[in-house]
Specification:
This protein has two domains: 30 residues; 82 residues, 2-Layer Sandwich (Alpha-Beta Plaits). Helices cover 43% and strands 28% of the residues. The protein contains three helices and four strands; from the N terminus they run αβαββαβ.
Length: 122
């Protein structure tokens, strides 16, 4: 009886997990963006390992493209594809992504240029 209850719980949890994964994947599966931004970010005390983590994490995400990095100065230049029209939203999204993907906390967005262009990338 205990084994049967355990099996039912396991199946239910597996189903819930599968549904959650499908919902989250569809929420982030947007491939069409109306704008792109060239963003210059200054990261205090940027390390090689932080940059490695960031570049590895962003590589499979089609919304970001790392264009340039200088570890000595802590400068990161990236292209960000999005649907925002305000620089403040881009600033917040970039800071959030760097914290999430690169575990980088001391971030200053130095420059944002929003351009209306499609997200078709090479």
């Amino acid at each position: 009886m205990k084994n049967r209850i355990f099996e039912i719980k396991r199946i239910c949890l597996s189903g819930i997990l599968a549904i959650a994964m499908l919902v989250s994947a569809s929420a982030f599966a947007q491939d069409s963006f109306d704008h792109s931004s060239l963003v210059v970010v200054k990261v205090q005390d940027l390390t090689n390992s932080q940059y490695g983590e960031l570049s590895s994490a962003l590589a499979p995400v089609n919304q970001y493209s790392l264009e340039y990095v200088c570890l000595q100065s802590g400068i990161i230049v990236l292209r960000y594809y999005h649907n925002f029209t305000e620089k403040g939203y881009v600033n917040q999204a970039i800071k959030s992504a760097l914290r999430r993907y690169g575990k980088i906390n001391r971030i200053e967005v130095v420059f944002v240029d929003i351009s209306p262009e499609s997200s078709t990338q090479c």
